[in-house]
UniProtKB/TrEMBL annotation:
Entry protein name: 5-dehydro-2-deoxygluconokinase
Species name: Lactococcus muris
Pathway annotation from the record: Polyol metabolism; myo-inositol degradation into acetyl-CoA; acetyl-CoA from myo-inositol: step 5/7
Pfam families in the record: PfkB (PF00294)
Function: Catalyzes the phosphorylation of 5-dehydro-2-deoxy-D-gluconate (2-deoxy-5-keto-D-gluconate or DKG) to 6-phospho-5-dehydro-2-deoxy-D-gluconate (DKGP).
Family: Belongs to the carbohydrate kinase PfkB family.
The keyword Kinase is annotated on this UniProt entry: yes
UniProt keyword annotations, A-Z: ATP-binding, Kinase, Nucleotide-binding, Transferase
Organism phylogeny: Bacteria, Bacillati, Bacillota, Bacilli, Lactobacillales
């Protein structure tokens, strides 16, 4: 069946307000530049720029911020038919960032009662999910009901229609009540997903432990549905584990780093783009790392997403 989308993501689209003045704490910062943010939204914005056809499912506030996000998604040609406008006064999330140094950035999120966590299962439609090759679920969408049930419904519909599910662990501590609770939902969804992408720390959250070890993590998860697990280790690179036992190591590329956030979202966008275009996992790891190297050298996460040509040029220059 010819499908309309390569990937549809479920989760949050929000606002990033990134400090314009660099290398000082937020207490002193007076100027912030506004961008669309939210990890799953960033991923489909990036994947679209890299050439995939993408759609987004999420809930936005019925206000200036919600309209800013909607307009940006439309401008970037991310399909918004799955986007719902909140009619109960819930606000879209805000993320203020401070860029203290090239290796230290902090994010201060305003996510009290946010609109994205009010996406409900009634707002998830099989006809829409059916039209995609991959469904991406952000771990944060599982943090609270009814968004949790909405994400689970999307997962069930993907499974029913034999659509591979990618879980991006995307752990945001303040959205959850406890690590215990997070580990339960992370494990349930990870066990039912085909591809998992997360940092080593995020897999520790999934396992509800500290200092976990990759081989033990993947051996446990491979007892269930996952076929491919990507574990990221920041500047040290990343590993892809296949169910058949293959382990592929990916290196990080050199970058003139401005800030650290945005790496994970650009990595996921490019990794998925490569997979969808039929590239090898080794190449997908390169695309992911190269896209991240480009985004950490720029000011935003969404607007900074590179094209496939830029990704390939960076790989050619550094390999
Ligand atoms: N400072 C950096 N310079 C170059 N590449 C980086 C840097 N930080 C991260 N990356 C790349 O981005 C990937 C994902 O980064 P990581 O920090 O593990 O994820 P997240 O942003 O989700 O926490 C890394 O595997 C690496 O390839
Ligand atoms: O995900 C959010 O809500 C905020 C993002 O838009 C922000 O840019 C960010 O934290 C990116 O996350 P990362 O790619 O995992 O570093």
């Amino acid at each position: 069946m010819k499908k309309k989308f390569d990937i549809i993501a479920v989760g949050r689209a929000a606002i990033d307000l990134n400090a314009v003045e660099l290398h000082q704490p937020m207490e002193k910062t007076k100027n912030f530049k506004k961008y669309v943010g939210g990890s799953p939204a960033n991923i489909v914005i990036g994947a679209r720029k890299m050439g995939l056809k993408t759609g987004f499912i999420g809930k936005l506030s019925d206000d200036q911020h919600g309209r800013f996000i909607m307009n940006y998604l439309e401008e970037k040609d991310v399909d918004t038919r799955g986007v719902v406008i909140d009619k109960e006064g819930h606000k879209s999330g805000l993320a203020f960032t401070e860029i203290l140094s090239p290796s230290e950035s902090n994010i201060l999120m305003y996510r009290q009662d946010v609109a994205d966590l009010y996406l409900s299962p009634e707002e998830i439609f099989e006809d829409y999910i059916k039209q995609t090759h991959y469904l991406l679920i952000s771990g944060t969408a599982l943090a609270q009901s009814p968004s949790r049930e909405a994400a689970l419904k999307a997962l069930l519909l993907a499974r029913k229609n034999e659509i591979p599910v990618i879980m991006e662990l995307d752990y945001r501590e303040y959205t959850w009540y406890s690590r215990e609770e997070t580990a339960i939902y992370y494990q349930l969804v990870a066990q039912q997903s085909d591809i998992l992408i997360g940092t080593r720390d995020e897999f520790d959250v999934l396992e509800n432990k500290q200092g976990g070890e990759n081989q033990a993590t993947v051996s446990e998860l491979f007892k269930y549905r996952p076929e491919l697990i990507v574990i990221k280790h920041g500047v040290e690179g990343s590993f892809a584990y296949e169910k058949n036992g293959n382990i592929i190591k990916g290196k990080a590329y050199k970058a003139k780093v401005m800030k650290t956030f945005g790496a994970g979202d650009s990595y996921a966008a490019a990794f998925i783009t490569a997979l969808r275009k039929g590239e090898s996992i080794k190449t997908a790891l390169k695309y992911g790392a190269a896209a991240a190297a480009i985004v950490v050298s720029k000011h935003s996460s969404s607007e900074a997403m590179p094209t496939l040509e830029e990704i390939k040029a960076l790989i050619a220059a550094q390999d």
